[in-house]
Amino acid sequence: MLTSLLISLLLGGKLAAGDPPARPNIVFVLADDLGWAELGSYGQTKIRTPCLDELAEGGMRFTQHYAGAPVCAPSRCVLMTGMHPGHAYVRDNTEGGGWGPDSVEGQRPLLPDTATIGTVLQGAGYATACIGKWGLGGPDSTGAPERQGFDHFFGYLCQRRAHNFYPTHLWKDGEKISLKGNEWGNLVGDHYAHDLMTEDALEWVRINHDQPFFLYLPYTIPHLALQVPDDSLAEYSGLWEDPPYKGGKGYLPHPEPRAAYAAMVTRMDRDIGRVVDLLNELGVRENTIVMFASDNGATFDIGGADSPFFDSCGPFRGRKGSVWEGGIRVPLIANWPGKIEAGKVSDHLSAFWDLMETCAELAGIEAPRNDGISFLPTLLGKGKQQQHRYLYWEFPGYRGQQAMRWGRWKAVRRNLVSGEIRTQLFDIREDPGESRDLSLSQSEVLAQMEVWMEEAHTPSAEYPLQSIDAEFSISSSFTNRDR
Q1: Is the pTM above the cut of 0.85?
Q2: What would the pLDDT profile of 131-141 be if each residue is shown by its tens digit?
Q3: Distance (Å, rounded) from C-alpha 353 to C-alpha 88?
């Protein structure tokens, strides 16, 4: 115990009051486009998620946790850097290439010398791995994961390639790994990417479990396309009326789209359980915190997805791509045997930019400058939990959007590219569906939140909110695509 404490102090860190000095392992699993209500522990009745439900029952479930943005790349940038969307470098999906088999891969890369959770924990002596979908820089770019604090990477560097679960190749530590038996544009193949990534994660944990480790596991499920091996599809086949999806708009067809979607989520749940089982087998489970979240809300009704059928966003308005609650409020489950009390439900207001600070405090070190607040006191039920003055989002896509949470209040601005700014105001406690605009009756609250919106927004030449900083224009080869 004394040795661990000295290591932490030598690393320039601090320990939370009552926090055990041994540096825990951290496993953070990120689903892709999973809606707030698509887990059994959050009210789902059609899709089976027994492993995640068990983690929630044995740990803590957050009811007011938010993604970094309503689409993939900016949400992941916020998660990795601890900077909220008004300060983050990546604020939208920006593509570095096209959609053909020979197109350049990757999205706008993180800049050199970016402080990420990977670099912070790597510097503290943690083994670090990212296995799954990256989306913050293509091969040989400044944003490649091996240049952003990860000792090991395996998976998709490019979000576009991740639209097929049977890709022609994946990337491993900067090397392109061809997958024989998978053909470009194929519906099925010999290698299901999710399974390969799970096996790689299990092997990496086996090799690195004798030292503190951080495993970032950004799975691609349940992002489209709808593809799942037959053994999982069989669990749901024939359960519901399930009209075939014939394909289109760049997505692959599927004969049983509802069954496929549910089967994908259940397969992911199963494999998260395999990771947890391995932690138990290796004897490190009690010193490992496992967290699970989604990068944004459930997807639109394209590509065969059917969010209304699964009630994917529960009581919330909107879906992926919007700053309505359904686009940014996401599940967060945290489980740490003997440290996090079982069966706890927290309404602590938190967001992706809090993870940097939380992981740093878990490791007993100081985090670099960021916008987050550690929620470790909430997890452990010890010490005083600091609160955000407000949570802020901006999203240049989908005609420009802003949103802010201040206690019970939610302010929303949309269609900023029109230049006609109008802010709506909602009482989220009484109206979680954001159906009653109170901007006229609560004008003082609205005025304060509008001031804070301007305060939180730092202009970006790459991602201008056109009605606010119209003098900026995108001046790069990247193009905006809201995928």
Answers
A1: yes
A2: 999 999 999 99
A3: 10
The pLDDT assigned to 218 comes to 98
Residue 362 has pLDDT above 60, yes or no: yes
228-234: Cβ within 8 A, 24+ apart: 228/165, 228/192, 228/260, 228/263, 228/264, 228/267, 229/192, 229/195, 229/267, 232/263, 232/264, 232/266, 232/267, 233/259, 233/260, 233/263
Q: What is the CA radius of gyration of the chain?
A: 21
| Residue recorded with tokens 């014939």 | 246
In this predicted structure, the answer to whether residue 467 has a pLDDT above a threshold of 90 is no
Q: What is the pLDDT of residues 218-236, one digit of tens each?
A: 999 999 999 999 999 999 9
Distance separating alpha carbons of residues 59 and 290, to the nearest angstrom:
9
Burial of 253 (0-12, 13-18, 19+ CB in 10 A): middle
- In angstroms, rounded to a whole number, what is the distance separating the alpha carbons of residues 328 and 164? 24
Nearest to 202, CA basis, from 272, 261, 153, 285: 272
Q: Return d(Cα 448, Cα 434) in angstroms, integer.
A: 19
- What crossing angle do the helices spanning 193-208 and 257-281 adopt, rounded to 10°? 10
Omega before 69 within 30 of 0, i.e. cis: no
Digit-coded pLDDT (tens) for 245-256 = 999 888 899 999
Supply the mean pLDDT for the chain: 92
Set out the domains of the chain in order of their start, with CATH numbers.
Answer: 22-380 (3.40.720.10), 391-476 (3.30.1120.10)
The torsion of the CA quartet 327, 329, 330, 332, rounded to 10 degrees, works out to 160
Place of tokens 């695509």: 481
458 pLDDT more than 50: yes
Residue type, 119: T
Closest to 365 (Cα-Cα) out of 133, 160, 158, 120: 120
**What is residue 473's predicted lDDT score, i.e. its pLDDT?**
31
Whether 19 has a pLDDT exceeding 60, the answer reads no
156, 134 in Cβ contact below 8 A?
yes
Please report which confidence band the pLDDT of residue 4 belongs to, taking 50, 70 and 90 as the band edges.
very low
Q: How far apart are CA 267 and CA 282, in angstroms?
A: 23
